[in-house]
Give the backbone structure.
Amino acid sequence: MNKQIRRLAAGLLVCYVILFVQLNLLQVVKRNTIAANPNNNRAVLRDFDKARGNITTADGVVIATSVPSTDTKFKYQRTYPTGELFANVSGYYTYAFGATKLEKKFTDVLTGQTPAQQIAAITNILSNSDNAGSVQLTMRNDLQQVAKDALGNREGSAIVLDPHTGAVLAMWSYPSYDPNLVATHDSKQAENVLTFLNANPEKPTLANAYQERYMPGSTFKVITASIGLETGVIDFPSMWPNEKSYTPPNTTNPIENFHGEVCGGDLRTVFARSCNTAFANVGVLVGADKMVAGTKAWGIGEPIPFDLPGGAVSHFGEVTDFTNSEALLAIQSFGEGSDAMVPLQMAMVASTVANGGVMMQPYVVAATLDHAGKVLSQTQPKVWKTPISPTTASKMTDLMIGVVNNGTAKCCLQLANGVQAAAKTGTAQLNAPGSPERSHAWIVAFAPAQNPQYAVAVILKGTNAEISAGTGGKLAGPVAKTILDYALAHPLG
Amino acid sequence: MHPLSRRSTELGLVIMAGIITAGAYTLASLGKNATIPPIIVPFFIALLGLLLMAHLATRILARGADATLLPLAAMLHGIGYVMIARLNDHLAGLQTTWTFIAIAAYIATLVVVQRAPDLARYKWTFFMIGAGLLLLPLVPGVGRSVGGARIWVRIGPVNFQPGEFAKILLALFFAGYLYERRELISAGTWHIGPLRLPEPRHFFPIVLAWGFSVVVMVGQKDLGSSLLFFTLFVVMLWVATERATFLVIGLLLFGGAAYASFRLFGHVQDRVHIWLDPWSRYQGKGYQIVQGEFAIGDGGLAGAGLGQGHPNLIPAVQNDFIFAGIAEEMGLFGATTLLMSYLLIVGAGLRIAIKAERPFEKLLATGLTTLIGVQAFVIIGGVIRVVPLTGIALPFVSYGGSSLVANYVLLALLMRVSDSSARRNGELPDDPTINERFAARQLRRRLRKQLGATPGDDTLLGNAPT
């Protein structure tokens, strides 16, 4: 019997060796194949069992953090203490619907997955410390709140930039949403919330400050005037006749001034009063080739190099669009027609004038830090474009001061303590055939005019009659004033 | 090794198993809640207390027995318990109760069964009880179906799986039956062509065993137990008769039954299909095995860490799929430790069988060892897709009272056989058992009465043990 028992032992040994081999196949050889199965969500689950790092504003307010979960599904719950205020910057981080905005773009830092953090984690393995990194914003919680309050329940956005660096100090889009409702571990509830948000025609999950583009109206005259100055086609002494309308070449349809006013004079006057007739003429004088080249120098038609993903691209057009159509060129030269500008880019336009003609790359992330607070990466201000010379920039500043002192922004942009602002307003008439009159109210500005600290752009979308009845100066002007007054009175640090 | 130093070895190993269990328990709590469990000190004391009781019982009642079996079982049991506690607090409470009962059953078995050969006398009793237990779930009113298999019995408030006890009783029966008739069966006086088979009447037990397996498979849809019983009997028949013919006949019978049931029963087809391709059946019957595979793959070499994986995603992970949970959180290292432990138990059990001189004890040790070795192989193999999945408990590790208690009884019987052969080999004095001493005293008293001797005067009885 002993022979059989020994054979039995050998047989069972073979059985267990087979188990061992299969176990090696599953846990070592085929490990990545198993992990890559679309039904396998264990990698995601692992992320949800770790605390993600914080996203913090420049003034030290945490806008995204992980707290111990109260449910049993995961160990940590992602929360957004500031609610809707930074939703369109932080984005959300969900189990079933992925992540958006900074939560998506900086997920490696926030989970400690960047190569630098992983190397640090190996050396720290004995201390068993959490290696989640954090993201430090350029944005200020206080300024964002001021922008939000100033805009109120009006669809639109307000952006504040540091003209010298391109750092975004505030960027509010209304409507927004509460990312906490989406970040819930209850996938069914999260799905319902997202469905509801996505069904909303005002698109709360889309940051209209940089993910949408709108007709710029007269704010575009900053670009047209600067191209005119830069190309030498116009200058301060240039004169335009006082007229009610201007008929471009090769068309019989006249272009009228706002509310059919009679408008004309030298460059300072036509800019301050925002004469459509004059700037339609400037576009025609400059010509399609140079207008298109000029707008391209301003970065129009090109994606903005921004650290938030999914930005919209502004539009002016190509030379071929204006071939035999000087009427269209004339219309687009004062910001109507198919002009479409991203509000962020309009803030960059004001910023460029303020910065002596140098257009900086905008950014919201100042630095990324590891778990110990050591800097992983720091954003260095970068020049994106240099559309105009310092001379032209200085002339543009002169023109934009005129708007505040004698022009369309006189009513509404007199800053506290006598600080001089420079601005350009815009009232973009949409005039869709058959629908009620609608217009967006715009302003771009910077202050102090001679020593610029802040550049802003404000747009109130012309979605209702109330906004459409106003002008850029009267509606957007006070918003810009509130923001600039606060910012000048409360410098950071 | 000197037989008496075996107990010291066992003590050391048992304490190590206790430390490993307490350490794993602490790690699981740290992994899950980042806190050291508040009850770790009483837990460790109770754990060591239980293990020491089992050890002391062995020291008193079976001191010549193998030194590694109890520590191996304790470690498997400990790892299983930690996993169950990490999965579900409520089940952990129940498993704690079962642990006490199981250790009590271990000690009780050593107390009741003091002479292994005595068991052979009760083989038909064991057979009747075993067969009865096996068929009990089919009795209307007491039998219950859980997860498609009708293997549960509910009597009053107590639920149990009688199959877990029946397997031991059947091993006892087979050992008793075969040691008597193995020569008759192996003689093979019936010639059919080139084959030399035993008399048809000696086929009766084979047919009976096969019939039982079929009944279990068809009536209870319990493929795992069916496979286990059949393997047990074929192996024991082969070892008893020393004739490979029986192995071949057994395999043919098994193959025939397996093929027929594949053709006849949907649930058998399901098992085969999800074995070959669980991926395309992820949304349905393949879900459990796919989740198990995700868990095992995720474990990698070192595992996710106790308390840090997601074994709860696997349905029934505390029962049949506990191995997947362990492989996830303890990795290839932990899973291999489990495989090695079973292999060591198989090695120790078969070593006991080889050392045993009496055929009954040899067969019994072989049968009991086969039960553990094959049961662990069948369920681990099912989980990692080496064989089709057949739901059955992982010995000592899975959650469940019946399985735990039955396996400790099985362990005690193996220890008893081991102790018995140590005494027979003269490795330690073959002292009379407590029962025998009691019987001897009764005998002396009766003799004294008959011979009219005075109490205390044993001169008439010579140097009888006292």
Observations:
- The CA atoms of residues 435 and 465 of chain A lie 11 Å apart.
- Chain A is about 40% helix and 15% strand.
- The longest strand of chain A covers residues 439-447.
